[in-house]
Amino acid sequence: MDVSVKNIRKEFDRYPALNDVSLDIRSGELIALLGPSGSGKTTLLRLIAGLETPTLGKIYFGAEDASHRTVQERHVGFVFQHYALFRHMTVADNIAFGLTVRPRGERPPKAEIQRRVGELLEMVQLSGLEKRYPNQLSGGQRQRVALARAMAIEPKVLLLDEPFGALDAKVRKELRRWLREFHDRTGHTTVFVTHDQEEALELADRVVVMSQGAIEQVGSSDDVYDRPNSPFVFSFIGDSASLPVTIADNGVYFENEAIGIAPRNGDITSGNGTLFFRPQDVVLVSDPAAPALEGRVSTSRRLAGTRIADIDVGKPGEPHHVEIEVPLDAQAATGTTLRFRPTRWKTFAA
Amino acid sequence: MTTSAAASGRWRLRQPSVIPGFGLTLGFSLAYLTLIILIPLAGLVWRSASLSGEEFLAILSDERTIKALEVSFGTAFVAALINVVFGVLVAWVIVRYEFPGRRIVDAIVDLPFALPTAVAGIALAALYAPNGWVGQLLNLVGIKAAFNPTGIVIALVFIGLPFVVRTVQPIMEEIDREVEEAAATLGANRFQTIRRVLLPGLAPAILTGFALAFARGVGEYGSVIFIAGNIPYVSEIAPLLIVIRLEEFNYGAATAIATIMLCLSFAMLLVINLIQTWNRRRYGHGA
């Protein structure tokens, strides 16, 4: 089921949580909504589910305008961050809930419901726990029960709100891989919210980066990491350093000194801007005459297979702090001067 | 004391924590309960024990005693049931909705706690008597609401309401909004959500509220006697019968009836507590 969100605006007490957001989700896609807290990602998810009503704009399920459909009518599977399991029901009753509340005519017979519950339990690898109560399960198990419960109604779309947020790191990793497999097996259109970029980049077909109630960029993991289209995306995803620069005469200047790089495709071609690059995308320049960025090493530390150097570049009075990766054999003791040049970068107008 | 109890193993009630004070607080609690509750009750049983077994049975099997007990427990039960329904409703309105005067409604709920019960009884009797404001209207539709068991129920409903509201309200405030939303996304309508998701979660609190309202109703005297009519065999409550016996200086009979009431109340509260425990265990909250 395709889902498209068209020019949605959502206000809470006059304060806009989402401002003119549009997004097309293709059938069978696994989409991550990624952003810092307060970026509106959960609000967008709840709007798709029908748990909130938009102030302006429309939401389509396929060709049908679903904006005024109730939650019940939308037929979505929703998984909450804190599971929201029914504590007084067994695992089996929790999963069967969506089927047992159907009107009498549409309700499957008891034996059929039981069979479906068995299938779903097997799918989430919890067979044998149907008689347990939620209190008797671990966090990871509860989350899988919540997922099975959402899947029981055969939803058109599966929506997950920070599904792994409340779990510890190890379980989180396992469940992440498991969710990907689960999605590939079932082929549901799936949207999940996360503030964990690693999770989004690893799991999703496409990542929607959001900030302050607007979508910054939509693209594959490679797109948002390698080709960020805004300063926000560049600094939000992965590690990065930024410096104020001037572009003129087909060269990039930092504090009026050429740094040995020229604007490339997609960079601004003149005027003041900000240069972004990642710590690993630099090369040390040994020739003292060649143009490069120059800075004093304030600290350097060994990090697994690399060495990270914190460097103060620019005038001594108001240094700009950048972090770069240096080869293990490079001289990068505290207080020494390093000259380097980005190999991959992007400039944005200031 | 606590360490030896823990070490012996057999007597381990609850593992005392590293924070000191278990021995002191338990000792104080026991002494206090003994002084305030157990000694007076023991005195009651002691007093009724001065009767011979036959005398005791005679008082028990007296038609008037049996009727009085029936009236007391029956009306308290009905009143508690009514309070459960409307108390939950009132709690729901206070917890869930923002409206002008919400805090006033919230405060009004406590009035039956604060009002002298005799005042409440006189006011209710005046209202519900056949010539009272409400009584007149009820008379038109053929309902007699005072000077019979219906009147007793009305008084007990008034007295018991805050017990239900105040026990259910805090639990209701803690209901996780997400659980309701989850039910909605699974296709449950509002009625199904309330009946299958919300009410079962509130059940222990409702049951406690019921038990408190019921217990209060069984023992209520002041507000009831004005509206009850106090007709022997019809609308005479057991506490009133006790007072009548006391006024006849028939202390034995008075304490015998009191002892029976005590036993019945204790048995009912015990059953309700057992249901609570069973309920908790069923949902996997441990012992």
UniProtKB/TrEMBL annotation, chain A:
Coiled-coil residue windows: none
SMART domains in the cross-refs: AAA (SM00382)
A GO term, aspect molecular function: ATP binding
InterPro entries found in the cross-reference section: AAA+_ATPase, ABC_SmlMolc_Importer, ABC_transporter-like_ATP-bd, ABC_transporter-like_CS, P-loop_NTPase, Sulph_transpt1, TOBE-like
Domain of life: Bacteria
PROSITE patterns linked: ABC_TRANSPORTER_1, ABC_TRANSPORTER_2
CDD domains xrefs: ABC_CysA_sulfate_importer
Keyword NADP: no
UniProt entry keywords in alphabetical sequence: ATP-binding, Cell membrane, Membrane, Nucleotide-binding, Sulfate transport, Translocase, Transport
Domain ABC transporter, chain residue ranges per copy: 3-237
Similarity comment: family membership: Belongs to the ABC transporter superfamily.
NCBIfam families membership: 3a0106s01 (TIGR00968)
Identification of the protein by name: Sulfate/molybdate ABC transporter ATP-binding protein
Gene source species: Shinella curvata
UniProtKB/TrEMBL annotation, chain B:
Keyword Transmembrane helix annotated: yes
Annotated signal sequence range: none
Subcellular location: Cell membrane
Function: Part of the ABC transporter complex CysAWTP (TC 3.A.1.6.1) involved in sulfate/thiosulfate import. Probably responsible for the translocation of the substrate across the membrane. Part of the ABC transporter complex (TC 3.A.1.6.1) involved in sulfate/thiosulfate import.
Protein origin, superkingdom: Bacteria
Subunit structure: The complex is composed of two ATP-binding proteins (CysA), two transmembrane proteins (CysT and CysW) and a solute-binding protein (CysP).
Domain ABC transmembrane type-1 as annotated: residue spans: 69-272
Segments passing through the bilayer: 21-46, 71-95, 107-129, 141-165, 197-215, 251-275
The protein's name: Sulfate transport system permease protein CysT
Matches recorded under InterPro entries: CysT_permease, MetI-like, MetI-like_sf, Sulph_transpt2
Membrane topology: Multi-pass membrane protein
Keywords noted in UniProt: Membrane, Sulfate transport, Transmembrane, Transmembrane helix, Transport
Membership in a protein family: Belongs to the binding-protein-dependent transport system permease family. CysTW subfamily.
Gene3D superfamilies hit by this protein: MetI-like
Source organism of this protein record: Shinella curvata
